[in-house]
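Q: What residues go here?
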């Protein structure tokens, strides 16, 4: 059986031969000669068009390339058309950062997720219906022991009743440490503005405007500051010194158990309170450098 390709080629060759025979013989082609002559003319016209294609107008070629469905889809640029390749529009910089986050961003988000999860797990006294809800009154009493107002009022009272220069010096610096703690904690809370945990109940003893923020824990910074101050300037027996350290640690832990703060708030609070004492020790107030303050408390 002959292949279709050969039959087509044979038909075209026969048609061209017939056209040449008819042109040379002057119309002696039989009854089918007009049809064969028309086919031969069509092929001859197409061969003329193909021979003139290289000399075609480049503008027409460009228009034909632009009208091509393949070119409209943007699959590949046509080199013959000479059109410039258009680069795809890039996403905004924020989207690039979200799609390709840095290692530091991934680490910080992971630590934040762990912090929130651990804080929620440790908030066993956040409400009366919590697993340790019966311990909530004791934790709130411990919370009052680290509040700033009782410490300020107690320091002022002891300073007014003190009759020795050494006692006034220690109490004056303790008052300076407490005021410094209040100022730094309020400043950092106002700058960071981290909200308290969602499971927290705002039923604290006394709050200020910045107390709606969580980072850092003011009770923890105060506990660490006071504990280090007492251990360095009061002569205590070893059991009392252990009790002071234990009080500071349990107070910081109670902030997470009550749902007031996250774990990172308490951890940074311990660090900040420890560093605050270093500032107080460096700027130690004495009758030699600030005599005006001690004259106010001098008794005849």
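A:
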């Amino acid at each position: 059986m002959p292949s279709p390709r050969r039959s087509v080629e044979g038909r075209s060759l026969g048609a061209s031969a017939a056209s040449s025979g008819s042109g040379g013989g002057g119309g002696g082609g039989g009854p089918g000669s007009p049809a064969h002559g028309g086919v031969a003319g069509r092929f001859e016209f197409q061969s003329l068009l193909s021979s003139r294609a290289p000399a075609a107008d480049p503008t027409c070629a460009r228009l034909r390339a632009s009208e091509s469905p393949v070119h409209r889809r943007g699959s590949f640029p046509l080199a013959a058309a000479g059109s410039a390749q258009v680069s795809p529009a890039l996403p905004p910089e924020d989207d690039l950062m979200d799609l390709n986050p840095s290692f530091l961003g991934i680490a910080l988000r992971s630590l934040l997720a762990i912090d929130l999860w651990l804080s929620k797990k440790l908030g066993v006294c956040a409400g009366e219906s919590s697993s340790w809800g019966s311990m909530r009154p004791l934790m709130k009493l411990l919370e009052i022991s680290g509040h700033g107002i009782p410490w300020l009022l107690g320091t002022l009272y002891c300073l007014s009743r003190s009759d020795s220069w050494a006692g006034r010096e220690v109490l004056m610096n303790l008052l300076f440490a407490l005021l410094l703690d209040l100022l730094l904690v309020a400043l950092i809370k106002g700058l960071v503005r981290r909200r308290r945990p969602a499971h927290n109940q705002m039923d604290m003893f006394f709050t200020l405007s910045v107390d709606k923020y969580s980072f850092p824990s003011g009770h923890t910074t105060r506990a660490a500051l006071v504990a280090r101050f007492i251990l360095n300037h009061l002569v205590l027996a070893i059991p009392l010194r252990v009790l002071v350290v234990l009080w500071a640690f349990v107070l910081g832990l109670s902030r997470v158990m009550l749902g007031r703060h996250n774990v990172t708030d308490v951890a940074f609070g311990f660090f900040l309170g420890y560093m605050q004492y270093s500032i107080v020790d460096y700027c130690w107030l004495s009758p030699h450098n600030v005599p005006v303050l001690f004259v106010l408390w001098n008794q005849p």
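A: Context that may help when evaluating the design: The radius of gyration is 46 Å. DSSP finds 13 helices and no strands in the chain.
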